[in-house]
Amino acid sequence: MTSGPPGPVRAVNARLAVSDLSVRFRLPDATVHAVTDASFEVGSGQCVALVGESGCGKSVMAGALLGLLPGNAEVTGTAVLADPAGDTDLLAASETVLARQIRGRRVGLVPQSPAAHLTPVHTVRRHLVDVLGAVGPERAGRAARHAEAERVAAAVGLPVTALDHYPHELSGGMAQRTVTALALAGRPWLILADEPTTGLDAPLVRRTLDELRRLTDAGHAVLLVTHDLDAAARIADTVLVMYAGRIVETGAVDRVLHEPRHPYTRGLLAALPRNGFHPLPGLPPQLSALPPGCAFAARCPQVGDDCVRRPDLWPRDGHPVACHRPC
Amino acid sequence: MLTALGVTAGWVPGRPVLRDVELTVREGEVLGLQGPSGCGKSTLARVLALLHRPDAGTVCIDGTTVPGFRHAAPRALRTRIGVLFQQPRLSVDPRLTLRQVIAEPLLANGLRGQVRDRLPGLVETVGLTAELLTRRAHAVSDGQLQRACLARALALRPRYLICDEMTTMLDASSTATLVHAVQEYRRRERAGVLAISHDDTLLGHWADRIEQLPGPAAASAQGP
Question: Domain ABC transporter spans what residues (chain B) (predicted)?
Answer without folding.
Answer: 2-221
